[in-house]
């Protein structure tokens, strides 16, 4: 084999991020390669929610809106996410879900380019991104959604009636990563606005969308904010004064507690907040952001590249005869922190693998996904995962009937 | 005085709901008359969030989406709210905020009445209800928002181009309560759809919107779901097949895990869900709904009427010379579970009162609000609150400078 288990143990011992793993809850016997779907809990998350529920809500009741900083959570939390995506304070608002953030971003973009009536969307975008744009365009009327297939298709699609382009920085199925700077420049050169979906990149490496117009992202994957933790929207400072979006709730009002009859947008990023934040769901997210404050993002990227490259190398070496096809780019520059393989029986293969303690996930029709969250995944996990996958394929363990029964959530 | 403190103690001893108070966290020395803004925490809320974070997220990681029922939380939680608003299972979807629920309800209503281009909105509606309709109408174009001032104005506004009417069942400032059945019938007779906002009524008494077309409401007031707990939308079964709304996220898709490129709505109420639920924020809400399962709603209403009537009586008796004006209806049939008084110096009066342990709140320009959550407010609390308010006014304690400094959240 390309590497021994002992060599992996040595790599872990030399890992500059190795102590950060201790900050996370990782059940014994589990190799958790699903941090690209739901990040592992920070150990501090439990105490954080207990503090919010018992001390803040229980101790101060409604007074906590002032005393405990609840009211400003969307902005204070946004300012903590900002450095992870390469932007400054006052540029990120947290709240709701990525789907809702897409409505904010796209409706703002359409307002900023009122003469242009086309939204470009990628067939590789995560489906909810597409669905939200479809729902919005159908409701607004008079808009065209122009689908592209990957970035190669983009130049041809950028006619002068394109208002904005919405792309996922990292493909949720393949882990393929766009050249964000080049694509942003291309889109902006055509007079359109660039909106990035950072769901599969924020926390996977040092994102930089400072040149982009808008961005959205979730916080429950590599950012470890907890199941359904609130999402974020980034708005370039140049667009904040003119940027208006559809979801004009009272927290985005210039004076929410004046209870005026008509909407008047707040200055700055606050106008991209909508309403009462889901306070309890912010607690684990902020516990995770406490960890991120001390993380070297260059080390995260270096480790991510090493982990994913090693996994590709080992799986290809060990599993070559068993019908796996690499879906992720070989060039680490073009790859997020995820490796995907196709397999015609991907679903039962993944179920069998999970049954043996190696947790990846499956995406229709045939995609086995493995996420490598650099904060808590070790080289030895990569080794053990590849060996276990090889055993499942070699022994055809996945043919057991119980692995083909579909669960509600795949 | 109309009643003695000892008589209030006796009323509490005879209260059929008296044991339910023990299920809530209420700090010593606090008379909490703000349950109409943020309900008190159920004692079980802390254990519920700990279970979600430690056992479910920490113990099962991403597998909890299946094993712990996370995926269906919007619908299972909705089915638990349904009996509190007089409707059946499969009619309520939980998620996001009331503001977002308004976009779902109003955009669905507009789709169901495509020939009609007017939305009727009350100037007494909570501002975010108005703001969301304004943002939606501006984005869609071609719609008129017709403002009415209370229900007396409504008949004249119901021309044949009205698609829907959005009203708050209980006025957030005055506590005035609509005759829901009569108003619904009036609106529907004009061919329009009736949308009720139940924020200040759900959990205050037995709501019944089964004849209405749509409804929205929050869960963090009388329902005690916790700060920013998710909101709900009700859709009458007759409208579910044809009802389409603007926020077409993947959880509302017929097959979310097929990852199809185009949106196709799920059957039934599920299409009114959008995306990944804020799982941690559902935990306290479901802890509260465990309590509600065993509550006699007729007893809630009877106690609410008794508490609010007694408070009006005592305050008017004790505070008559001090410039308070009753804003709430005297007829208990027309009143929610809230009593409001105007006072020209309402803000410092409320601050002084809170400083003495009686927590109400203030709404601009001059409204002192007192909410009486029947699950945990006692008759003796009503007595003590009225006596304390009288003292603050009598001694003019509110003239202390520190009470006029405005807090961020009022």
TrEMBL record, chains A, B:
Needed cofactors, names only, are:
pyridoxal 5'-phosphate
Q: Which residues carry this modification: N6-(pyridoxal phosphate)lysine?
A: 221
Q: In which pathway does it act?
A: Amino-acid degradation; L-kynurenine degradation; L-alanine and anthranilate from L-kynurenine: step 1/1; Cofactor biosynthesis; NAD(+) biosynthesis; quinolinate from L-kynurenine: step 2/3
**Record keywords: Hydrolase included?**
yes
Q: Name one Pfam family in it.
A: KYNU_C
Q: How does it assemble?
A: Homodimer.
Q: Know the name of this protein?
A: Kynureninase
Protein's gene = kynU
């Amino acid at each position: 084999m390309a590497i021994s288990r002992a060599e992996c143990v040595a790599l872990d011992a030399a890992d500059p991020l190795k102590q950060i793993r201790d900050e996370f809850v990782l059940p014994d016997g589990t190799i958790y390669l699903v941090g690209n779907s739901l990040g592992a809990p920070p150990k501090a998350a439990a105490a954080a929610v207990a503090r919010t529920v018992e001390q803040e809500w229980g101790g101060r009741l409604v007074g906590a809106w002032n005393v405990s900083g609840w009211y400003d959570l969307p902005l204070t939390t946004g300012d903590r996410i900002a450095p992870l995506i390469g932007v400054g304070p006052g540029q990120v608002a947290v709240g709701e879900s990525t789907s809702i953030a897409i409505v904010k971003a796209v409706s703002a973009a359409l307002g900023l380019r009122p003469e242009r009536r086309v939204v470009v969307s990628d067939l590789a975008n995560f489906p909810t991104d597409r669905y939200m744009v479809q729902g919005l365009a159908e409701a607004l009327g008079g808009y065209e959604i122009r689908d592209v297939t990957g970035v190669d298709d983009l130049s041809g699609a950028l006619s002068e009636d394109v208002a904005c382009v919405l792309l996922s920085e990292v493909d949720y199925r393949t882990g393929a990563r766009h050249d964000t700077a080049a694509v942003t420049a291309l889109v902006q050169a055509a007079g359109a606005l660039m909106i990035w979906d950072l769901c599969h990149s924020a926390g996977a490496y040092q994102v930089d969308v400072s040149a982009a117009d808008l961005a959205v992202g979730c916080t429950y994957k590599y950012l470890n904010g907890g199941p359904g933790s609130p999402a974020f929207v980034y708005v370039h400072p140049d667009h904040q004064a003119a940027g208006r979006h559809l979801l004009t709730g009272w927290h985005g009002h210039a004076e929410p507690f004046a209870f005026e009859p008509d909407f008047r947008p707040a200055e700055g990023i606050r106008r991209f907040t909508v309403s009462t934040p889901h306070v309890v769901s912010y607690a684990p997210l902020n516990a995770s952001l406490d960890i991120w404050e001390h993380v070297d993002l260059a080390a995260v990227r270096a480790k991510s590249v090493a982990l994913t490259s090693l996994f590709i190398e080992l799986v290809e070496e060990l599993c070559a005869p068993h019908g796996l096809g690499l879906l992720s780019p070989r060039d680490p520059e073009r790859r997020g922190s995820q490796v995907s393989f196709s397999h015609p029986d991907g679903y039962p293969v993944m179920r069998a693998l999970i049954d043996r303690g190696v947790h990846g996930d499956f995406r229709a029709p045939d995609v086995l996904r493995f996420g490598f969250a650099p904060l808590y995944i070790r080289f030895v996990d990569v080794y053990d995962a590849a060996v276990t996958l090889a055993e499942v394929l070699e022994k055809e363990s996945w043919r057991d009937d119980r692995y083909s029964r579909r669960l509600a959530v795949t």
